[in-house]
Amino acid sequence: MGDASPTSPALARNLSWPHLIAMGVGAIVGTGILTLIGIGADKAGPAVLVSFLIAGFVCACAALCYAEMASTINTSGSAYGYTRTVLGQTIGWIIGWSLILEYSLVVSAVAVSWSGYAAPLLHDWLGVPMTLMNGPHAGGVANIPALVIIIAVAGLLLMGTSKSATFNMVLVAVKLSALALFVWFALPHFDTANLVPFSPYGFGSTMSDDGIERGIMAAAAIIFSAFYGFDAIATAGEETKNPKRDLPIGIMGSMVACALIYVVIALAALGSTPFLTFANSPEPLALILRLIEQPGAAHFLAVTAVITLPTVILAFFYGQSRVFFALSRDGLLPRALAKVSAKGAPVRITLFTVVVVGSISLFLPLGEIVALANAGTLVAFSAVALCMLILRVKKPDMPRGFRTPLAWVIGPVSIAGCLYLLVSLPQKTLMWFIIWNIVGIAVYFLYSRRSAARQPSA
User: Fold this and answer.
1) What CA–CA distances, in Å, run from 320 to 121, 353, 392, 423?
2) Which of residues 18 and 231 earns the better pLDDT score?
């Protein structure tokens, strides 16, 4: 269940662990540190460092669970495939529906973040009106650059997985060099006075006087997306040359590398300037460099962000199209969408994804997009940890390419941490997430269940 049958559309196996680590780093190191650090600082002050640690710890536990499941059940579709195999079609659909929400909104959020860096450059260089580069929430008409970059990434994916993965590795290297340059210029300005008061809004998620929910956990619930991205690697199960070996290496390798990168950059950012100066900025790192009188480095970072943020879009767009592909191949979405090209790329599902995520990116603001995306992710992560524990009981001798250490500690901690972060999200976000799932359940019982029953068994 969830695996491709001999007669099902098949994806080409082109990826090895270096591609997967680059995909993970490309997905993880992006909006989270380039943009969300400003949103997190607005919610928690300098204590956003603790928010990063909490979110990173929960994500690391979830990553260990993902690594075991990815090396055990080699299927496209990530958490959807695992849940469908372990818990059945109905629960699998609910998790797949959550993944659709996660990936659609993350791709849209990163496209909006990319536009935040690109818009000033396009305005200065080409005279593009700002009203055409901001959504209605920011006084504009529509975020046209966000849609354009989504279309460009889709074109790259349609060239084939191997070529797009190699190109991604090059852009990841460029991105890391720009972040290293930021640390180089920011660290000499480090002043411990900028970290005082360390936690101005407290630990829990509470409503402040201006109607915004603040606190360490409120920030952690939002910047949680700064760490996920490794789950996009898990969607590559059918396109990896040696999935039992390469998937765990890709997942854990990218998590370790990104955790180190985040700690260094967050310390440099928070220590170099007072957090209020860059809180909620669409380009916080570039702004910090300008504040410490490094306009050349700020310009370079902004240009680099414009060039390299598409690596995040590519990784999540890839994941979204593969989740759609798995759902379509299983008959839960129209099966015609699962058609694969001669290059092994799901063309129709990629174009369908462009329509979905492009529409979102045109009009919605970054903060709201990320919060709702996190809700879907946290539910999916909890499901993967639960599936790992269930398989440990039901099939303890099942071959596993990777075994999560201290599984009966890591698994429950992952579930509890994800659920705590979920309830720490803004109430408005939770309301929309409930509505999304009500719609998903209706779609399942009105269409997907009957459609899947008419499909040939895998």
Assistant:
1) 29, 7, 28, 25
2) 18
